[in-house]
Amino acid sequence: MTKIASRGGARPIERTDNPVIVTRRGQIARLESSLTPHEAQIEDLVFLRKMLKRANIPFLLIRDHKNRSVLAIDIELRSAVERELTTACATEPMYAKTVDMPGLSPVLVAEGKLSPLADPRIVRLYRRRIAPGGFRYGPRFGVELQFWAFEQTVIR
Q1: Between 37-54 and 78-88, two packed helices, what is the crossing angle to 10 degrees?
Q2: Which helix (H) or strand (E) holds 15?
Q3: Residue predicted with more confidence, 139 or 131
């Protein structure tokens, strides 16, 4: 492993094959040089799908009118989803942006919440990425998680 000297006299960081994590304006992000925004979105979708399957949380995978991936989950399972995501994202720069109410800041999923709201219906999940040229992959390239009410004859 290569050691990378840090600024300010702090101890050096060991470099691994894992993506480099950087901070920018208080938010954590991966330094990304090889994935396109669409490939990053697919990578996040696969990560989320594996987490839901491991936790035995049923979901529907659909596409919205803009061809964005949407994972629809029973609203009764929201707390289980939040709990599992918190665990799965402990070492990931995964953020959740509430879509229900514009203007809310994204939250770091590892901190235990999907939203500043207690009961969001729609959140967009994404791992923040920064390309070497400064291009940022934010919520625009995320995967939507929608909490639906599944009733006997109606889904809302």
Answers
A1: 110
A2: strand 13-15
A3: 139
